[in-house]
Structure prediction request, 227 residues.
Amino acid sequence: MTQRFRPEMSHYQIWSAIDALAQRNGMSVSGLARRAGLDATAFNRSKRYATDGRPRWPSTESVFKVLAVTGETFGSFAQSLERAPETKARQSEPSPRVDGLRVPLLGLVQAGSGGYFDDAGFPVGHGWDYVEVPRSTDPQAFALEINGDSMLPLYRAGDVLVVSPGAALRRSDRVVVRTHDGEVLAKLLLRQTKDYVDLHSFNPEHNDRRIQRDAIDWIARIIWASQ
Prediction:
């Protein structure tokens, strides 16, 4: 059985050190995992907790594999562990045993910049706030806060959309789409083919969109909204 990597450090500190390792080497955590010969989702935020809320820890083997491919030493990795304070972990990690569910929160405009999502559209890295929403069985959910009025009359500035990047998509679903250019859109899914996705705008002042598949970074279904 593979030994689990659990020194006298918190769950938050260890995963933050892996995030920092990927960032120092100019990669997403998915790219880091692939470079080390691991499953691309091995370090995704969705894999850091079990479905019942228990924290999952990276294995010693996976840690040493990523150190080997990046050429970094265990000493530098340990320094990253020490730079992520224990108190921050208690304040920032999602806590599944509350009346609602705490999920990562980011502004919709901010979501267009790099460093916040892995290749599959799951939240990674630092800079996330957290918001409590009605309990969901989806451990992969995260939240985006609406900026501006481009989604009126359905969504207003300050509304929070909770999205599930792993949920199946159907026609007429409300979705959030992020393009490779960093554009982030909340639209109604009209049609999807292997070549393109047709989207309907909530605001009649904005045109419907057809986006080529190879231009899409990720697409996620909206599963809840605060209004």
